[in-house]
Design brief:
- There is one protein chain.
- The protein is mainly α.
- The chain has one domain (17-298).
- The chain has helices spanning 17-32, 34-41, 45-68, 76-100, 105-112, 115-127, 133-150, 162-184, 190-211, 221-246, 251-258, 260-273, 279-298.
Length: 316
Amino acid sequence: MTAEMARPAITNVRARPVRAYVALALGVIAISFTAIFTKWAAMPGVPAGVCRMATAAVALTIALVVRTRGKAVLPRGGLKWGLLGGLVFALNLALLYTALETTAAATATLLDNTAPIWVGLGAVAFFGERLTMRYWAGLGLALAGAAVVTGLWAEGGARLQPGVAFAAAGAIFYAGYLLVTQRARQQLDTLTYLWLLAVVAAIALFAASLLLGMPLGGYAARSYLSLVAVGLISQTAGWLLINYALGHVPASAAVVVLLAQPVITGLLSIPLLGEALAARQIAGGALILSGIYLCLRGGAARSDEGKHTVFEGAGP
């Protein structure tokens, strides 16, 4: 992706570095629990998404009211991008959560985190941006890693599992969300954008659950508590911490730390979900993460000088 796409909102890279790195680390740990909480919920994808985003919407509404003293104003120019971002994110969330019903947490999270790669391709297709050779090398590595992780690389040609297909499709919508976020954050501050995103996504997923006849009630208390946790810890606290950190640390450092999410999720899934990591998951995961890193670094020659990073916003 291009330098513009990878630029973070740096207000003062050297200011409060320790606090910023602590916030970044805590934020990444918080979002790494997303798949864990979702697995514990054992709820269909769309209703699970409703509970997560509704929880986040309530929490962010309180935060926004406190910050603006009840006088929040939405810029008209940024409103359309916020609405579009919420809709695309809702699609990503529905697909990711559906994937988690049948796919290992580590695999689904890893495939979902290939989104920055597709952001680069989207930037070429829609914005006419040029990509470096390092990006294309990273793309090749990531695709090879995906083939290993999903089993498509195995002899005899393994069939693509439905959960894997949902996770891969979700990554495309996640990439679309990141592209929209890049535009939205030019006119909306972090808290306003996260609030608008949560409200729109919650409404969209609620409408989808009604249309699909998927009930929101009748699940165990553990299911609802798990989704309240992901809404508060991962969606709200995690991404607020990450967005704070992105204003104070270099993008080159942030990229490396953020790539730890699928690794942490994979490690957490062993004791918390009983999902052991297979050799192909480890090998393929290493290839994918290396590819993503090359793609991000390939378009980040001036990453510490600009405004927004591709990770900024709120993700799965």
